[in-house]
Protein 1
Amino acid sequence: MRLPGPFGREAAERRGLARLAAAASAGPAREYAVTGLPAESTPAGELRLLAVDIETTGLDARVDQILSLGFVPVDGYGVQLAGARHIHVRPREGHAGVGASAAIHGLTDDQVAGGIAPAEALDLLFEALTGRVLLAHYAAIEVGFLGALCRAAYGCDLPVRTVDTLELGRRQLPAHREPAPGALRLWSLRTRFGLPVYAAHNALLDALACAELYLAQVAELESASATAVTLGALAR
């Protein structure tokens, strides 16, 4: 019998962390697994997150590759720029390179060929993500690709808790009204809060843009709520 709600999810997360800890005998992946995930009761003001964005060769995590990874920590109500990283990731041997995706993100074969191996990029992510929640805009993309890296490196899925700024944006639109085309895009939601425009499709800038949007969304949620906003409310 599958338990509904957070009890079922938390049990699955514990199993996932145990599998990762067993597969990773040492290093950042094991440290991430044994540290565990933040509690659902953690208030937004105490929550530690890592805003993450990736650029890829396509949208299918089964066959496409991560080309770059950007991330920036968010502690409570502040973005920690000192922890920001932008990493080029070398496609696995035999992959064709950036291909037609270069027209979107502007990365070249030379840039990614000089990047680090996918498994090394995953370990850098684990190091930065330890004790934190993964924050992304349409987080299914990041979780899908990073999960594929985790399965390739450790033979198990990526146990992670996420907050998705796209879903927060959906909840903050007027009720019973279908969003207009493009209304839930990262840059459309930022415009609603008067946030500045950055160049798109740069993994680090997109991660920073997501972090800033999240803080604006949380401020709006907390101003409208009589109680503290918790991770459980943000991640539902």
Note: The longest helix spans residues 203-223.
Protein 2
Amino acid sequence: MYRILASILTLQQHLDALARNPTIYRPTVCPTCSFGKLWCHGCYERKADRQSSGSASLNPIPIPRFICRHCHHTCSRLPECIAPRRWYDWAIQQLVMLMCLSGYSLHACSRQCGLHRSTIRRWWSELQRRHHDDSFHLREYAPDLGRSVDFTDFWQRCLQKMSLSQVMVVLDARGLIVP
């Protein structure tokens, strides 16, 4: 099952899609048992709007949940604009990754982006740790990435070709756990 629903790039698009056609979020099969009947099971909320504050904020953002009729496990799907397991959106993560790839220190990235160094270090370490598997699947998706000579060159080319959210959609569709 794909955890990320591609092509929903903004929180407003997500809210509109939930209002007009919430069934697009329903997985076709249960990710646990592969049974094909999932029922709506309410929603949970995420504070995903980091751009706005006060009355202009879209928070809380509802995320639809589904329950399997067969095994009773629940699951959900996120729009592409919301990163699973992460507090910050894809755009700020991509900016940080590009700065690190360009040779900025963790301290310089921290000052520039207003993030804690430990957060940046965790993201950078995870990108390095997952590089082998992720790059294999991304090269399969976009063979021209195979021309890159090393880690830095690969990720610079990759992030020039597509956004970090698109990279994660590709990896999610290939069954990898997306950070």
Note: The radius of gyration is 18 Å.
